[in-house]
Design brief:
Blueprint (H helix, E strand, L loop, with lengths): L3 E2 L3 H27 L1 H12 L3 H32 L1 E2 L10 E2 L1 E2 H36 L4
Antiparallel strand pairs: 1-3, 2-4
Helix pairs in contact: 3-4
């Protein structure tokens, strides 16, 4: 018989609240940027050639959440590999989840780590592309 980790109703509530709040925040940011698109475009045009360090910092801040997600995925995968169990002991789940042990769990952890590494590579490539574009259009290449 396969072991099952029971769902935690509190975890489901937390997940729904988190997704709702982050979706509302994302929507508000989109509306804010769209309503100020002309101002932002003018600022970018004005500062592109003169202040590329500030623009580099802006793009780094924009990519920072991706680095945090990458780090979390890698660390979560590492914890799964060490515990050789998924879901981790004591981890809250939003629905009844079959417990995966041993090689299957290690494989799942390694897949998460590979996804994290791929995400890091893609994020670094995006940073390089933005840096290159800034220097190309800023006349500093």
């Amino acid at each position: 018989m396969t072991a099952v980790q029971k769902a935690d109703p509190g975890a489901r509530r937390k997940a729904i609240i988190l997704v709702s709040v982050l979706s509302a925040l994302g929507g508000a940011l989109i509306v804010l940027f769209e309503s100020n698109q002309q101002v932002i475009s003018e600022w970018l045009e004005m500062n592109l050639a003169t202040n590329s360090r500030a623009l580099n910092a802006v793009f780094l801040v924009m990519l920072a959440p991706q680095f945090f997600v990458t780090y979390y995925l890698f660390a979560f995968g590492r914890r799964i590999v060490r515990a050789q169990r998924f879901p981790l002991p004591g981890q809250s789940v939003v629905r009844d989840t079959k417990i995966i042990l041993s090689n299957e769990a290690v494989r799942r952890g390694r897949v998460l780590q590979c996804v994290a590494v791929a995400s890091a590579v893609i994020t670094c490539c995006m940073m390089f592309a933005v840096w290159r574009l800034l220097h190309e259009f800023g006349g500093q290449a």
